Amino acid sequence: MKRFLLAVALVTAPAALAGGEECHGGAQAAAAVNKVTVKQVAEWAKTKAVTAVDANGKEVREKYGVIPGAVLLSSSGQFDVKELPSDKASRLVFYCFDDRCTASESAAQRAQAHGYINVSVLPGGITAWIDGGQPKERPRS
């Protein structure tokens, strides 16, 4: 019984640590993905040299907003690759809720597995973006 309770605690801990926000990434990402800063993404966004990719769920998007112009994935782990730009050399920056959420890592790895070569994640996600004083917008329906 103790082992069962320990297993339940280990499985549910990542969701509890995410502050109850909807984060659909796995508890641990399989392989490292390049990480970028809020400042880098903001600079690239000024010249439209980046496509931000939101791996959050609907509840997080509605509560916190999204990076302006972001692609809104239908699912962080099972999205249709057609949701991404057709140019596989496009600079893609995936983000989710915060630094405890791994949905962006999962989504970025899926993009890489489908041949995208310029893939990064924004650690801290939308919360780091907002804390960095960057603009946000309401999600498109």
H and E string: HEHEHEEHEH
Low-confidence stretches: 1-21, 26-30
CATH class: Alpha Beta
From the alpha-carbon coordinates, what is the Rg to the nearest angstrom?
15 Å
Tell me the number of helical segments per DSSP (H or I, 4 or more residues long): 5
Distance between the termini: 46 Å
Order of neighbouring strands in the sheet with most strands: 1-5-4-2-3
Quick description:
The protein is built from 5 helices and 5 strands; from the N terminus they run H-E-H-E-H-E-E-H-E-H. It is an alpha/beta fold.
What key attributes describe this structure?
Oxidized Rhodanese, domain 1; five-stranded parallel beta sheet; alpha/beta; disordered N terminus; single chain; 12% strand; 141 residues
Describe the structure.
This protein is α/β, with parallel strands linked by helices and 141 residues long. The longest helix has 16 residues. It is globular, with a radius of gyration of 15 Å. The termini are far apart. The N terminus is likely disordered.
Blueprint of the fold:
Layout: H1 2-17, E1 34-35, H2 38-46, E2 51-54, H3 58-64, E3 71-72, E4 91-95, H4 103-113, E5 118-121, H5 125-131
Parallel strand pairs: 1-5, 2-3, 2-4, 4-5
